[in-house]
Amino acid sequence: MSDIRLNDTDITLIERLSQGRNVPANLAEEIGVSRQYVQQRLKRMEEHEVVRNIGRGVYELVEDPRDD
Predict the structure, then answer these.
(1) Any idea what DSSP says for residue 2?
(2) Does residue 67 fall inside a structural domain?
(3) Which InterPro entries does this one have (predicted)?
């Protein structure tokens, strides 16, 4: 898939998910943005195979694009 452009929220979400699986509501509360915005960013990163929804809204990091 093509390269993904990461914004500051994406980077923060990746940092949080590198520490373990999490759900959008928890991530949103931790970083101070809306759950809807986190869900939108995670969906975009899922399309680029950076994260995956493993079920019941739980996300995990698949590949850290910051390593490139």
Answers:
(1) -
(2) no
(3) WH-like_DNA-bd_sf, WH_DNA-bd_sf
Tell me if 2 is assigned to some domain.
no
The single residue listed with the structure tokens 């500051």 is: 8
- The parent domain of residue 14 ranges over 8-62
Here the CATH number for the domain that contains residue 26 is 1.10.10.10
Tally the domains of the chain: 1
Question: How many CB atoms within 10 Å of residue 65?
Answer: 18
pLDDT digits (tens, 9 = 90+) for 29-66: 999 999 999 999 999 999 999 999 999 999 999 998 87
Asked if 60 contacts 42 with a C-beta cutoff of 8 angstroms, the reply is no
pTM (two decimals): 0.92
Cα separation values, 2 from 24, 40, 54, 55, Å? 24, 18, 23, 25
Tell whether 22 is covered by a domain. Answer: yes
